[in-house]
Amino acid sequence: MKKALIIVDVQNDFCEGGALAVPGANEIIPYINLLMEENEYDQIVLTQDWHPADHKSFASNNGKKVGESIILNGVPQFMWPDHCVQGTFGAEFHKDLNRDKVTHIVQKGKNPEIDSYSGFQDNNHFMKTGLDDFLKYHDIQLLEIVGLALDYCVKFTSTDAVANGYVTCLHFNGTRAVNVKPDNGRDAIYEMIQKGVTVLG
């Protein structure tokens, strides 16, 4: 069975000191590097939040405060601080992440009208990113997933992986949660298990 490692959004804005820093984010980078060193993956894919400056998920573009919600194209949208803007330092991958073995990069969130948490598709399920096509082209059947953040982009990437027919495993030690609400990370784990994701300790 061919397997791929999907590394979700290990970018400066989600790491320590970033515009949308995930608590403990930097702690997962050595773990992810070790996975790549100790395992043979057929493909290693990075996903990258890659927002235009006028993205509608940014509170600043809606006259809202961070943490408020709006309805964006028919779906609820949490208002985030500006983050991972195309071409900025915040959008770059963290310097400590070893990218020597990376075979593919998928950029998401490029449409200013729709947010995109999943590495597979936008939140409205209108547009695919090409990740599924890439994996199927390379006969990948098993996905191992790590990255940021557990309760958003990692969760949706993992559940979409199951929905697309992949055997899907999440490395618990390779992810951290935003935890806008204290139980969000825990709830994300339960939701993923219910949808068929295997959580590795």
TrEMBL record:
Under Enzyme Commission nomenclature, its number is 3.5.1.19
Boundaries of each Isochorismatase-like domain copy? 4-199
Pathway stated in the Swiss-Prot or TrEMBL entry: Cofactor biosynthesis; nicotinate biosynthesis; nicotinate from nicotinamide: step 1/1
Gene3D superfamilies (UniProt xref): Isochorismatase-like
Q: Keywords on this record?
A: Hydrolase, Metal-binding, Pyridine nucleotide biosynthesis
**Mind telling me which InterPro entries this protein's record contains?**
Isochorismatase-like_dom, Isochorismatase-like_sf, Isochorismatase_Nicotinamidase
Its GO biological process annotations read:
pyridine nucleotide biosynthetic process
Molecular function terms in GO for this entry?
A: metal ion binding; nicotinamidase activity
- Which family does the UniProt entry place this protein in? Belongs to the isochorismatase family.
Protein name, per record: Nicotinamidase
Look up and give the organism this protein is from.
Answer: Chryseobacterium populi
